[in-house]
Design brief:
Chain B is an alpha/beta fold. Chain B is 27% helix and 21% strand. Chain B contains six helices and 13 strands. In chain B, helix 2 links the parallel strand 2 and strand 3 (68-72). Chain C is mostly helical. The chains are: A alpha+beta (594), B alpha/beta (266), C mainly alpha (86). Chains A and C meet through helix 1 and helix 8 of A and helix 1 and helix 3 of C.
């Protein structure tokens, strides 16, 4: 009955365990700073990572530098210090790049700072082109002097024409530069920065433009008055059907070569923006035509002239390319295999925009790119991190006369990839995972096997403890009838003949020693003693002092001691006597108890 | 639980109140208990409910006598109290976000002293935690210029969100006294202790505590006064290292008794 | 003291201790709990059954432990896959 309190205690303990676990079972992961990010009032600082502190402090100096840089750059261009200007431009480019990095790092790819960045990028492009253009302009000045001196009127005309193209380009640049003015100044003023440097750059820029205007005007006048070969009515005339064109329009350029020998095929070189775009064969009547598709022409004025045999020049014609708005349609992104598929179409009005770069942005950061096909359609598979994302597509073209456009924003949710066992698909999809799982299971299975095996080594088949040598083998029932009180000391397996038994060399004494073992086991079992193998004969005798068969046990043990340890030979009848003592002790044990 | 002085977790104010108690702060449960004399500073930290007109009247009298009242709240509800005190400061419960942040989280806005107010003396900046912004009054601490109210909640500067400085601590003279409004009670929670180079938030707290000879803390409506019994028991176990050590020792003791018992038996 | 009850109480105490600490730390993780239980039962079984004899009531315990070890292997594999999938 002493089992009851123990049982009650164990039961209470188990119940307490279950209760404690059950209390929290609803939310297994109770607490980590990350699982407790805080409410509306505050977020848990322990769950947050330290921000890199200096990055915000860089913004203002950077903007200040960017407002100052154009000033000295344009001044150097104006005064013709191209070496300094080149260095300024290099610096300017570097600072702009740091701003780009910073804006992306600060995740400010929208809003005011980004507007400033875009304006600045435009300025950088404009000033780079201004730098190159004025460089070329100065070259043309030098060349002009050389050709004038050598009287090479054809080359003179060529470079003057090129100068004309350059003049118009620089005018366009100035117009573009003014477009950025508002944003640049506003930002500067907002951050309390000095914008005089930037203002000065605009003034200097204008002076460059008017200087070039004046020079070019002069040149054109001299060119016309001094007379090129075949002045007066041009021997080569050129006409453009449309002055203002936009994306995917065709500019039809037609001309007539007056000095044409009948039936003699001729070729006329056509230049757009002083760049030769091809030689066009004339028809028998001397006319020629060319269709120019506006696709990669920047916005602004473009010059066209034709040259026949390197000496006969047409007049300069111009056409103006206007920027067209675009619309970027993005279909609802679909999710498959953990990747997000984007599809959409880019149109300029109703014309598809072909071969245009499309950016896929998630949270304003570029996460994928695509390129439109012939029909303006694009598609892209983008891998996004698990979680919710705000995605949209963005188009911005540098070389086409197209306005940048943006698609609608979609919210996509990328589910957590199901790890391990949970998702059989993911498990089988990746053979590595299956291998790892199998290997781990094999290893643990092997471990479990070893564990069982190790235990079994210790568990040799239990010896028939209660059956004396010579008696019939125990039947199963006998074993079951053994005191199986289950009160802590019941022994199932016993390591039998250890050193003790092996030390016995003679058969009779071996017989006796197994008798002793058996008796010792039986007594130990009876008394619920845990370590029967450690008992010596005398201890065995002493242990039995409260048992009814003490006398028999002690008689046996003393006889046994004599036989085993005296070394003297023992007569057979004495052996029998010892044996019978043991037997009666066993019987005494088996009898009244059962 | 949040802001509770008995809450030793990150969102409690147990550390702040420990310091207050060390400085013999006077706890009042209602404005009628406020002493006269005009040499006191009353801290109203994170009020949980609005104040009745008669309470506001008492507070206004207290303020006009030449005392200082520091109201720390990010709820627009307190505008009623502020206007009742005769101040032009208003709390705007927006999602103030800044590039100048301490943690890499939009809510972790840094604020810098503006003006020459004694409250901000010697403190280079404070770290806010989901602050609101203030209008009116004399700015004492403002966010940097690279801050905006994140109206669309995407944590990023959007097209319609403009960058500007926002006042987060403002002062206003009322009668002889001064009312300070701090637009974020979270700056004093335990989690914000020992943050920054010199623990500036708590430096500000100490500055408040020692600004006047007498330091009074409102405990009637403040959320800091919230104290369920259970939390005290938990505190006892969790907050003291000695208890933890005792528990561990006990475990080892029981374990070794068990092992020794086994060993002896063997 | 009966060994069997000692063992049961020790195991129950151990599990209680583990869950108690988990609750104090506010991280109740079933996997960790299982592993700690396995460790506990291994140690207790080892202590209860000496080199010479294993009590009868522990005979099937070995199978429980062996299956626990296999389950442990599965948990380890799961953890590895989780880390890999990250």
């Amino acid at each position: 009955m002493r089992r009851l309190p123990a049982l009650v205690v164990s039961g209470i303990l188990v119940l307490a365990c279950l209760l404690l676990i059950g209390l929290q079972a609803g939310s297994p992961l109770l607490y980590s700073p990350r699982s407790d990010p805080g409410g509306a009032d505050h977020s848990n600082p322990a769950a947050l990572e330290r921000a890199r502190e200096d990055r915000a402090a860089q913004v203002l100096p950077l903007i200040s530098d960017l407002l100052d840089s154009p000033g000295s750059l344009v001044l150097n261009i104006k005064s013709g210090d191209f070496e300094y200007a080149a260095r300024d431009l290099q610096e300017y480019r570097q600072i702009s790049r740091s701003l780009d990095t910073l804006v992306i790092n600060l995740d400010m790819t929208e809003g005011e700072l980004n507007e400033f960045r875009n304006a600045n990028q435009q300025n950088l492009a404009i000033l780079t082109e201004l730098f190159n253009g004025t460089g070329r302009w100065n070259e043309l000045q030098t060349l002009e002097i050389r050709y004038r001196d050598s009287g090479d009127s054809q080359m003179l005309t060529t470079i003057t024409y090129e100068g004309e193209a350059l003049r118009r380009r620089i005018q366009d640049l100035y117009r573009d530069y003014l477009e950025q003015d508002q944003v640049m100044r506003d930002t500067g003023e907002k951050f309390g920065l000095d914008t005089t440097g930037y203002g000065q750059s605009v003034i200097d820029f204008r002076e460059i433009v008017s200087q070039i205007d004046r020079d070019q005007h002069e040149k054109m006048t001299t060119l016309q008055t001094t007379g090129t070969p075949g002045t007066g009515p041009y021997r080569l005339t050129l006409g453009i059907d449309r002055q203002r064109v936009s994306y995917m329009d065709t500019v039809r350029i037609e001309g007539l070569l007056w000095e044409h020998k009948k039936d003699h095929p001729d070729e006329v070189d056509l230049f757009i923006d002083s760049r030769k775009i091809g030689s066009i064969p004339t028809k028998p009547d001397g006319s020629f035509s060319y269709s120019h598709l506006v696709e990669h022409d920047r916005e602004g004025t473009h010059t066209v002239f034709a040259v026949y045999s390197g000496s006969v020049f047409s007049e300069i014609r111009t056409f103006f390319v206007e920027t067209s708005g675009t619309s970027l349609d993005l279909k609802t992104p679909s999710l498959h295999n953990g990747r997000v598929a984007f599809e959409g179409v880019l149109l300029a009005g109703s014309t598809p925009v072909r071969f245009a770069p499309i950016e896929i942005l998630a949270e304003g950061k570029r996460s994928g790119t695509a390129r439109t096909g012939e029909d303006g359609k694009f598609s892209s598979d983008v891998k996004l991190s698990p979680g919710s994302h705000k995605v949209h597509a963005f188009f911005s073209a540098d070389t086409s006369p197209l306005a940048p456009s943006e698609s609608a924003t979609y919210e996509v949710f990328v589910p957590e990839p199901s790890p391990g066992i949970a998702g059989e698909d993911g498990l089988l999809a990746n053979p590595y995972y299956a291998v790892i799982l199998a290997a781990s299971l094999c290893a643990s299975g092997f471990g479990a096997f070893l564990y069982l095996r190790r235990q079994r080594v210790g568990l040799s088949p239990p010896i028939p403890v209660f059956h004396l040598p010579g008696e019939r083998a125990p039947d199963g029932a006998d074993n079951e009838n053994l005191p199986d009180l289950d009160d802590g000391g019941t022994v199932t397996g016993v390591v039998p003949y250890t050193g003790e038994a092996e030390a016995v060399d003679t058969v009779p004494s071996g017989d006796l020693s197994s008798l002793f073992s058996a008796l010792r086991m039986a007594v130990a079992r009876r008394l619920a003693f845990l370590y029967p193998l450690s008992l010596t004969p005398r201890e065995l005798c002493a242990m039995c002092r409260e048992l009814p068969f003490r006398a028999e046990v002690c008689r046996f043990t003393s006889g046994y001691e004599q036989v085993m340890y005296s070394g003297a030979s023992v007569p057979d009848d004495e052996r029998d006597m010892i044996g019978s003592a043991a037997r009666s002790a066993m019987e005494g044990m088996g009898g009244p108890d059962h | 639980m949040e802001y509770s002085r008995y809450n030793p977790e990150w969102n409690g104010t147990s550390r702040l109140f420990q310091e207050m108690i060390e400085r013999d702060a006077m706890m009042v449960s209602g404005f009628h208990e406020l002493p006269g004399g005009g040499d006191a500073l009353l801290l109203i930290l994170a009020p949980g409910e609005s104040y009745a007109p008669d309470e506001i009247g008492l507070l206004r009298t207290f303020l006009e006598e030449g005392n200082i009242v520091v109201l720390v709240s990010d709820k627009e509800r307190e505008n009623l109290l502020i206007s009742g005190l005769g101040s032009s400061i208003r709390i705007r419960d927006g999602n103030l976000t800044s590039i100048d942040r301490f943690f890499d989280h939009p809510s972790s806005v840094l604020a810098f002293p503006a003006g020459q107010d004694p409250l901000g003396a010697g403190i280079s900046r404070i770290v806010l935690n989901n602050p609101s912004s203030l209008e009116g009054g004399e700015p004492v601490f403002t966010s940097s210029l690279l801050s905006w109210i994140d109206a669309d909640g995407d944590s990023r500067l959007g097209r319609d969100e403009t960058l500007q400085r926002f006042s987060v601590i403002a002062a206003d003279r009322v009668g002889e006294g001064v009312l300070y409004v701090i637009a974020d009670p979270s700056i004093f929670i335990n989690g914000m202790d020992a943050i920054g180079m010199d623990n500036e938030n708590y430096a500000l707290a100490r500055q408040i505590m020692s600004a006047r000879p007498r330091f009074i803390v409102e405990q009637g409506r403040s959320r800091t006064a919230y104290a369920p019994e259970a939390i005290r028991v938990v505190n006892l176990v969790k907050d003291s290292t000695i208890t933890k050590m005792a528990v561990i020792t006990l475990i080892f003791l029981v374990g070794s008794i068990f092992v020794i018992g086994r060993w002896k038996e063997a | 003291m009966m060994k069997k009850h000692l063992a049961i109480s020790a195991l129950a105490g151990w599990v209680l201790l583990v869950s108690g600490f988990m609750i104090l730390a506010r991280t109740l993780d079933l996997e960790i709990f299982f592993v700690l239980w396995l460790i506990g039962i291994l140690i207790i079984v080892e202590l209860v059954s000496d080199h010479a004899a294993t009590p009868r009531y522990l005979r099937y315990q070995r199978l429980v432990i062996a299956s626990g070890v296999i389950l442990f292997g599965a948990i380890v594999a799961r953890k590895i896959l989780e880390i890999l999938a990250r």
